[in-house]
Amino acid sequence: MNSDIKDKTLASKGKLRIEWANQNMPVLNLIKERFAKDKPLKGVRLAACLHVTTETASLMRTLKEGGGEVALCASNPLSTQDDVAASLVCDYDIPVYAICGEDSETYYKHINQVLDLKPNITMDDGADLVSTLHTKRTEDAGQVWAGTEETTTGVIRLKSMARDKVLKFPVIAVNDAETKHFFDNRYGTGQSTLDGIIRATNRLLAGTTFVVAGYGWCGRGLATRAQGMGASVVVTEIDPLKALEAAMDGFRVLPMADAASLGDFFCTVTGNKHVIRKEHFELMKDGAIVANSGHFNVEIDLEGLEKIALAKRKMRECVTEYKLPGNRRINILAEGRLVNLASAEGHPSSVMDMSFANQALAAEWVAQNHKTLEKKVYVVPVEIDKQISNLKLKSMGIKIDVLTPEQERYLAGWQEGT
Ligand code: ADE
Question: Which is the closest atom of ligand 1 to the Cα of 75?
Answer without folding.
Answer: 9
